[in-house]
Structures are given as C-alpha cells and as structure tokens.
Structure to design on (259 residues):
C-alpha cells in the first residue's frame, strides 16, 4: 500500500519501540521495508517504560512530517491503545502519576493487581489486558487517586482517517501463529532474550514486556522446560490475538477485508 500510494509507515506496536526487541516483536527488517521509510521503531531503551502518551507525541510529529512532504501516513500495527492515543484527543482531564500509590502497587503481583482492579472497577477490568502490569497499575492509580472508576474517555478525532482491518478465520490465524512462533525460535529468539538480560534488562522487566520475552525469560531462569515454555507461549499469543480482535471489533469505523 505504501509503495502504491506514496506512503510512509508509522508503526503502532508497543514493543517494536524498544531497541533490541527484534525477533520477539517481529520487527520489520531493512530488506522487508523495500525502501519505504518506517517510523517509531527503536526509539526507546527496553529498560524504560514507553507510554501511550510517549507514542502519541512521537507519532503525531511523524504524521506532520510525512504530510508536510506530501506523502501519506500509514499507521500499521496491533496495539489499539496506541492507535487511539494517536487518532484522538481525550477530553477528560488526565490524572497525574502518584509515586506514593505506584510504590505501594509495585509490591503486588500482576495477579493481585488484576484482582484488586476487578473489585474496585469491574468495567475497566473487563476491557483491560490482565497480563499488562503497566496498564493495571495505571488503572488502579486513577481509581485510588480519584475514588471513582476509570472515566470513559470522550474522544475528539484529531485526523480524518481510513481504518482497514484484515480478517482471517480463527483456525487459519491459530495455524499462522504457531508457524510464526517456531520460525522465531529457529531464528534465535531465545538468544535475543539472553542478550537483553546480559545488557542489563532485568528478569522482572523482561517478564513485564510480555509474551515471548516473559515466557523465554522464565525458561532461561529454569522455571519452565522448553516444551512448557513453547506450549504456554503459544496459548498466550493465541489468547492475545483474540483480545486484539475484541478490541478492534468495537470500532465500527473499521472496514474489514479478507486476505
């Protein structure tokens, strides 16, 4: 599409923003880019937390730059939260971070955070990725700071955008996920995680990065066998794909195509 319509690609992937997360995140290679510029890749250290606000700031700058050069910005990726942060101006007042609350929440496991959110704000719990520790902490921070549930955002569109989604039968998607996982394992994904840890990315941080980095870090710490790691990771990726579809199907502006 970028080649046909004089476009440049803006990645909307929450892990491809990190340097060194290449195989596990499925980051596009220079050869695969085919000369098309790609933006918002390798912009942050994996030791740091890169937020949706960080993404919106950089992505909006990229959109302006691409438009000013007379080209078409094409946002591509599966992190719906990032895409919404780029496309919409939220009209609700943001709740500033609270170091005191975060310090207390940091002592809880991810499961305990999810349990607490389910008790304090069932509606937000129903729509959140319960394995995403950063989002659980942020949701609880808002609830505990305001004494109220996380407000539903009133969204004001910032751009005129055409939204296209690719729809595949679930059995085909499951098959492709398994093939992709085995290809990544053969390409050296375990070595990649090992190298990240050697360069100072903590086991906790690798766990919080989710999916491939979470389960391979558990394997490297001998908490899972290779077969357990592959099996549990495959299940987790398939579950994540279903949550992605649930998220995007709520957006009635998306035009779905089969491919």
């Amino acid at each position: 599409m970028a080649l046909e319509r004089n476009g440049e690609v803006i990645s909307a992937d929450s892990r491809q923003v990190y340097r060194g997360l290449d195989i596990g995140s499925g980051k596009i290679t220079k050869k695969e880019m085919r000369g098309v510029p790609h933006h918002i890749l390798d912009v942050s250290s994996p030791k740091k937390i890169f937020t949706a606000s960080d993404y919106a700031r950089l992505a909006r700058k990229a959109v302006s730059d691409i438009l000013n050069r007379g080209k078409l910005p094409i946002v591509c990726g599966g992190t719906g939260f990032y895409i919404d942060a780029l496309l919409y101006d939220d009209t609700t007042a943001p709740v500033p971070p609270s170091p005191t609350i975060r310090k207390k929440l940091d002592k809880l496991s991810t499961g305990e955070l999810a349990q607490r959110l389910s008790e304090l704000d069932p509606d937000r719990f129903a729509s959140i990725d319960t394995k995403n520790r950063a989002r659980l902490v942020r949701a609880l921070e808002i609830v505990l700071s305001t004494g109220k549930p996380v407000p539903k955002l009133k969204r004001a569109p910032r751009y005129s955008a055409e939204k296209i989604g690719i729809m595949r039968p679930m059995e085909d998607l499951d098959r492709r996920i398994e093939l992709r996982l085995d290809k990544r394992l053969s390409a050296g994904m375990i070595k990649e995680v090992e190298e990240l840890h050697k360069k100072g990315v903590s086991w906790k941080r690798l766990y919080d990065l989710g999916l491939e980095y979470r389960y391979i870090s558990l394997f490297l710490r001998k908490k899972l066998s290779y077969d357990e790691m592959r099996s549990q990771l495959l299940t987790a990726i398939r579950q994540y794909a279903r949550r992605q579809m649930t998220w995007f199907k709520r957006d009635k502006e998306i035009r779905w195509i089969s491919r």
Observations:
- The beta strands are 7-11, 38-39, 72-76, 88-90, 155-157, 163-167, 254-258.
